[in-house]
Amino acid sequence: MKTLAEKLIFTYDDINRLPEGNYEIIDGERHDMTPTGFEHGDLEAGLGEFLRRHLKDKGYVAVGEIGVLIKRKPFRLRAADVVYISKEKSPERPKGILEIPPDLIIEIISESNTAWEITDKVKDYLSIGVDRIILIDPLTQTVSLYQKGKKEALLYNFDEDVTLIEGVTIKIKELLL
Question: Could you tell me which of 121, 145, 132 has the C-alpha nearest to residue 59?
Answer without folding.
Answer: 132
